[in-house]
Amino acid sequence: MIREYFQAAMEEAGYEIIDDPERFYGEIPGCRGVWATGKTLEECRRKLEDVLDGWLVVRLQKGLSIPPIEGQEIEPLGPEGPSSSSKHPYMVRGDLLLAIPSRHGGEIGADLLDRFLKQAEISREEWDSAD
User: Fold this and answer.
1) Quick one: pLDDT at residue 120?
2) Architecture of domain 2-129 in CATH?
3) How far apart are CA 114 and CA 122, in angstroms?
4) Gap between the Cα atoms of 104 and 73, Å rounded
């Protein structure tokens, strides 16, 4: 059940080249907040798999719904779900669970910031006007 969901989600992944030191950007449209970058397409894909894995674990832990993908569904377990933690930081905003970029001391470029804000459903104007 989880493996089939994971495979279906990865098959839905889309990738593009962006203006950023980590040129490759990938996201899974059906899984809001699941995205990653990498210096190569393969690195981006591996990171995207890690983010998807953590996203599923955290959503199950918190009892949040998991959207069906290609007929694959996972029912939330509720607050007593799995106890393993994710290696990626996440921001929770309502029902949105969004991976936070980890640049290991590097800066986030404007192109990547725009994609992050899009995933978080925050306009650039909202971001620029925040104190």
Assistant:
1) 77
2) 2-Layer Sandwich (3.30)
3) 9
4) 34
